[in-house]
């Protein structure tokens, strides 16, 4: 089987079934394995969901431009030093503040390998590389509670199966206070805002870096949730 793009790994039916089941079980056992989660995400997004997302982008003028240009989100393409110098209220600076605070780099997203169609493979890659923007624009941290909140938001907004499975299975690994916060605050917020918001895959993030972050939230239909780290601090101070 020939490759359709540089990182492509063609699979037969048996290999797809094996990888879907194997990566799903392994990811459930060890949710910190980004490679397993990435593989499971690619296997379960096919064939229906990835084409739905691609078609959603094709129906939108900005989405079509993104598919045509195929920009990548990396520390080089974004010029992180320039973003740090932008006014603090801008999308670019909010993004950088979040990256610096959480100790995250945009260069850690794994390449898509198991989606055959090159355009659909780019859609999945774009989703992965935009994930940190979703964190930044909502203010949710990379701790487990924050990830669950963002994953639930993404599920409501994109319909990607892996995000829904993560959002509604990972809370069982948390303590009762954490589950209570998710159940009462962050899951309802995520579902409401994810369903209401414009499709975030159609946001050309590279073109809105100098835009006021609150203005962008209003345009997209996103309310910023309560500060999770502050709620956790308050909870600890009571003990």
Automatic annotation (TrEMBL):
The keyword Cell cycle does not apply. Zn(2+) binds at residues 131-132, 135, 147. GO terms for cellular component: extrinsic component of mitochondrial inner membrane. Its main location: mitochondrion. Its cofactor is Zn(2+). Pathway: Cofactor biosynthesis; ubiquinone biosynthesis. Keywords: Lyase, Membrane, Metal-binding, Mitochondrion, Mitochondrion inner membrane, Ubiquinone biosynthesis, Zinc. Transmembrane segments: none annotated. It is found in: Mitochondrion inner membrane. It comes from the Eukaryota. One of its GO terms (molecular function) is zinc ion binding. It is a peripheral membrane protein. It catalyses: a 4-hydroxy-3-methoxy-5-(all-trans-polyprenyl)benzoate + H(+) = a 2-methoxy-6-(all-trans-polyprenyl)phenol + CO2. Belongs to the COQ4 family. Lyase that catalyzes the C1-decarboxylation of 4-hydroxy-3-methoxy-5-(all-trans-polyprenyl)benzoic acid into 2-methoxy-6-(all-trans-polyprenyl)phenol during ubiquinone biosynthesis. Component of a multi-subunit COQ enzyme complex, composed of at least COQ3, COQ4, COQ5, COQ6, COQ7 and COQ9. PANTHER family: UBIQUINONE BIOSYNTHESIS PROTEIN, UBIQUINONE BIOSYNTHESIS PROTEIN COQ4 HOMOLOG, MITOCHONDRIAL. This is 4-hydroxy-3-methoxy-5-polyprenylbenzoate decarboxylase. It comes from Trichomonascus ciferrii. The gene is COQ4.
């Amino acid at each position: 089987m020939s490759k359709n793009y540089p990182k492509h790994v063609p699979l037969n039916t048996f290999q797809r079934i094996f990888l879907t089941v194997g990566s799903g079980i392994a990811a459930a056992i060890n949710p910190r394995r980004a490679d397993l989660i990435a593989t499971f995400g690619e296997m379960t997004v096919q064939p229906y969901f990835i084409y739905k997302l691609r078609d959603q982008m094709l129906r939108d003028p900005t989405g079509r431009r993104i598919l045509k240009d195929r920009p990548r989100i990396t520390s080089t393409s974004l010029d992180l030093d320039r973003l740090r110098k932008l006014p603090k209220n801008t999308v670019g600076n909010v993004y950088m503040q979040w990256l610096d605070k959480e100790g995250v780099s945009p260069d850690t997203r794994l390449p898509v390998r198991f989606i055959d169609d090159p355009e659909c493979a780019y859609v999945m890659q774009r989703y992965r590389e935009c994930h940190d923007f979703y964190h930044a624009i909502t203010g949710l941290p990379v701790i487990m509670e924050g990830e669950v909140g963002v994953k639930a938001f993404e599920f409501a907004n994109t319909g990607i199966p892996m995000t829904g499975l993560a959002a509604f299975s990972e809370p069982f690994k948390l303590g009762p206070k954490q589950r209570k916060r998710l159940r009462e605050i962050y899951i309802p917020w995520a579902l409401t805002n994810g369903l209401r918001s414009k499709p975030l895959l159609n946001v050309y993030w590279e073109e809105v870096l100098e835009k006021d972050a609150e203005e962008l939230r209003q345009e997209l239909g996103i309310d910023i949730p309560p500060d999770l780290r502050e709620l956790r601090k308050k909870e600890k101070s009571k003990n």
